[in-house]
Write a structure and sequence with these properties.
Helices cover about 10% and strands about 45% of the residues. It is mostly beta strands.
Length: about 350
């Protein structure tokens, strides 16, 4: 079976010509059309802090480099790795002490009614937990206050998280069991491997019916309408459903969806690889974090009609393969698990979001 799988990969590489060859990016220089913020270790996700000149970056880290929550000043290029203080008066559900280590995957920022922001983080450092922080922005930049955590069941393997309002949230469960050759085959053929799961203090953890997909990855939520959205990487679909399950719709999208973000105009942004699934990114995965590019695109999706528009495509190998695309103040900011930088391009007047 392993020989057959290897042969299949070889055939797909031949079909895709150079699709299996990594495009390594050397140096760290901005150009006329691409600004780069370097010095990061796998900046997997990005969230804005209102109108402040700071973005929060989920720095995944690696086996030898710890992960962090990083504040990026888009005006001065300053990078600050944030240290959290503990809110000893917090009544949020706690699964243990404040984490000594972070390995953040996806995360989510939402406004608090009394000012400041709430940050939810998928932390894979020591078992799977969802960490909750309060973020405040002062004269010297953002500060973090840890408010508690929720332990993730062993049956759930989360990638991304989004607030569903109050204290609840939704995560994307990627797949069951170990990453075997059979699981790889499911990915290759877009067979369902996971789904969305919600948590709240009363009901605990529950699967969201109708959200089954192949490698559910990015997740977003609209607390106002009670709808959640899940990007399927290997199914190349977007799934929309009520947060309590039901009323589900699935549409095909032109990217292997990674993280989802909300644009200022209310549309969802999904970014992802546009080449051969699995095989097209294999070369970059072997480079252990060196900046590496592959073809990707960003698609804007109307959350009500699920109509789509490709707003950005990258094929010339100057930006690492993107894991997130954030529309902020007329620019598109893109993070990656295949490199050391956040990249920024200006949105055209026709695609202002």
């Amino acid at each position: 079976m392993r020989a057959c799988a290897s042969g299949l990969v070889s055939v797909l590489c031949l079909i895709g010509l150079s699709a299996c060859d990594p495009i390594v990016i050397e140096g760290c220089e901005s150009s006329a059309d691409i600004k780069v913020y370097c010095g990061l270790e796998k900046p997997e996700d990005i969230e804005p802090l209102g109108t402040h000149p700071w973005l929060l970056v989920s720095e995944l880290g690696s086996g030898s480099v710890p992960g962090n929550i990083v504040a990026l000043n888009i005006e001065t290029n300053q990078l600050t790795r944030l240290e959290a203080v503990v809110d000893s008066d917090s009544t949020f559900s706690q699964c243990g002490a404040a984490p000594p280590n972070l390995r953040p995957r996806g995360f989510h920022v939402s406004d608090l009614p009394n000012g400041g922001f709430r940050l939810l983080v998928v932390n894979a450092a020591d078992g799977e937990r969802i960490e909750r922080y309060r973020v405040d922005v002062g004269d010297h930049g953002p500060t973090l206050t840890w408010q508690g955590c929720v332990a993730v069941p062993e049956t759930v393997f989360p990638n991304d998280v989004a607030s569903t309002g109050n204290e609840g949230f939704v995560v994307s469960h990627m797949y069951d069991g170990p990453r075997s050759i059979w699981l790889q085959a499911k990915f290759l053929f877009g067979i369902h491997t996971g789904y969305a799961v919600t948590w709240d203090r009363v009901a605990g953890w529950n699967k969201v019916e109708g959200t089954d997909a192949s490698f559910p990855n990015g997740v977003e939520a609209d607390p106002g309408t009670g709808r959640i959205f899940v990007g399927s990487t290997y199914g190349q679909t977007l799934v929309a459903a009520d947060v309590g399950g039901g009323n589900a719709r699935t549409v095909r999208i032109p990217v292997q969806s990674d993280n989802l973000t909300l644009a200022p105009d209310g549309r969802l942004l999904s970014v992802g690889h546009t080449g051969i699934p699995i095989v097209g990114t294999r070369g970059c995965r072997r480079l252990s974090g060196r900046p590496c590019s592959f073809p990707f695109a960003v698609v804007a999706i109307n959350p009500e009609t699920l109509e789509q528009e490709i707003i950005y495509e990258h094929t010339d190998g100057r930006i690492p393969g993107a894991s997130v695309a954030l529309s902020h103040q007329g620019y598109l900011y893109m993070g990656t698990v295949f490199g050391d930088r956040v990249s920024r391009v200006r949105l055209s007047t026709e695609t202002q979001l």
